[in-house]
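Inverse folding, one chain.
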């Protein structure tokens, strides 16, 4: 059986908020950080799922957008990922691949 190996399977993007701050306030602000889990490689067969989560820190905007191979929500060939981070491997895996 063919499988999909997921190496930190998805990319996320956070929305940016335009704001004005003084130079001192901007220098003192901690950097926005994102933690994604699971971080280990996941190996899935066709139609299997894995749930990813993202924790965004040091910002009030914690919204994330999940992507697979640069496609928001993924697609038929590479698998799909829901807005909540549930990745589903493709139904027909033509070849093994890793999603960076």
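Residues assigned per position:
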């Amino acid at each position: 059986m063919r499988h999909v190996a997921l190496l930190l399977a998805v990319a996320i993007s956070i929305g940016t908020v335009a704001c004005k701050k003084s130079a001192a306030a901007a220098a003192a602000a901690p950097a926005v950080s994102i933690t994604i889990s699971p971080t280990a490689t996941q190996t899935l067969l066709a139609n299997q799922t894995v749930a990813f989560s993202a924790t965004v820190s040091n910002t009030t905007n914690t919204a994330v957008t999940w992507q697979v191979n640069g496609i928001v929500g993924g697609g038929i060939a590479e698998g799909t990922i829901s807005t909540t981070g549930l990745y589903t491997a493709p139904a027909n895996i033509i070849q093994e691949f890793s999603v960076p």
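The longest helix spans residues 23-28. The helical segments are 23-28.
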